[in-house]
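User: You have something folded?
Assistant:
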Amino acid sequence: MGDVCLGEKCRSEDSILRGPDEDAELQLVLGKLREADLASGFTTAIRASIDYVLDGARTGRFDLLSKDVHPGERASVGAKLEYEAQRVFNWVKAKPLDIEIAEVPVDLKSTVGDNWAIPTEAHCHLCICTQMRLKDNVHRSWLIRTHTSWLYRGKGNKDGKRGVAVDARHQWGVPLYDWTPLPVNPLTRLTEIEKYQVFDPGHGQEVRLLRLFKYLPMTVIDRSVVLTVCANRQDPMRRARAIKEKAAEQGTLLLCGKWLPDRGVAKMHGFDLGPGDWVAIPNDSKQAELPGDGFLF
């Protein structure tokens, strides 16, 4: 700190290497960021980015670490996250970088590995750097000015992108939030045998959905999970609604967040269902009467 950055982007008063507390622009951006629930917002944005890449409703995929997901697809989660984060936080898209916060240019970078590839246009600018640890289903983010002097030496990759030196990240980066859990797709909890039966192409949607709810009781199943199980089949949500009576015959109370009475019963069991959510309650759990037949919409 106090030295001069040798990067071409720093031929100005900003060339002096300052710590976060002395970086006026960083403090201005940090103040705005702290007005938002960053951990929750990035959780939503990352989950949406992963779902977009997996495209479960078309491919039937649900695990980003599966061998049928190409490494390039995993890496593309970061590119999608840039746009999802802008959407979630209503950040303004602006050149020369990705966004502006408090009229300060900020770049958005993310990685499913241990470092970020900082492009030349972002050298010496402020970056929000998000790290996703997929095996542990967690993520965290920093705000850091990516001075050229704080990046790894050398020419970088073929596009001139360079990683952030670990010491620089720890000393000059500002943690925006600590490791935060990512929602786990319930389908990853199925055993191999259960997975085969749920995705068995030799049976129709209703049979497969009944198996899904049988194998994952007391678990909130959202709309994307139903679409993944019924990938490329016609009208899967109608099929899911059609099995409520059959599920009851098999000893399972199947509740859908589309109906207000179902929501009320689910809440009695400790589940807060959204309009596209489902939960299966086995008969040996606490039971409740369904009050009437009302729709949410």
In short: The beta strands are 92-93, 99-101, 104-111, 126-133, 138-145, 174-181, 252-256, 278-282. The mean pLDDT is 88.
